[in-house]
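Work through what follows:
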Amino acid sequence: MDYPGQYQSQVLSAIQTIDLAKVTRVIQLFKSARAHGQRIFVCGAGGTDAMASQFLCEMVKSAGRNRSSRFRILALSDPSPIIAAVRDDFMNERVFVEQLKNFAEPEDVVMGICTSGDTSSVVNAIEYASWIGCRTIGITGCDGGEVARLAELTIQVPVSHQGSIEDVHMIICHMIGYYFVDFEKADQGDERSR
């Protein structure tokens, strides 16, 4: 079999490992956070930084369009000057924790995306968030690592190929985000929500 076909088979196999009941639980956590005005913070490590940002865009633009009730959601990897300043002073492993210290409150939601489950910046964010009483979600790969041990709810893609893990992580993010786009009706006639 040629490599593209092998890769396709690998990804299709990895997709089958998604625990749909846990994805539904994440959707419920997001619904509850929105209903109660709680914040949702998303963070990722390396390439999953970009995934966290893309997820934020979908939740703000697509899931918020023409809705009177919107998500209070931020990607902790987005504010570049803050990231640079924190990395200079505290090293990379505290880059998300230092932001959470300013904004996170009990019952807020913190979601960390990490292929290994062991990247220190994401592990520390989940650990700190748990400690102050936030709801925590880990989206991981491989054996789940420390994130799986620390998070209240973990969706794990138990394969070892990083590309396949990241592909499936994006699918999981789309399952969450597009639930709010496809299954919730937009408000009709409310100009303030547009």
About this structure: The mean pLDDT is 88. The first strand starts at residue 39 and ends at 44. Helices lie at 3-15, 20-35, 47-62, 80-90, 97-103, 120-132, 145-150, 162-182.
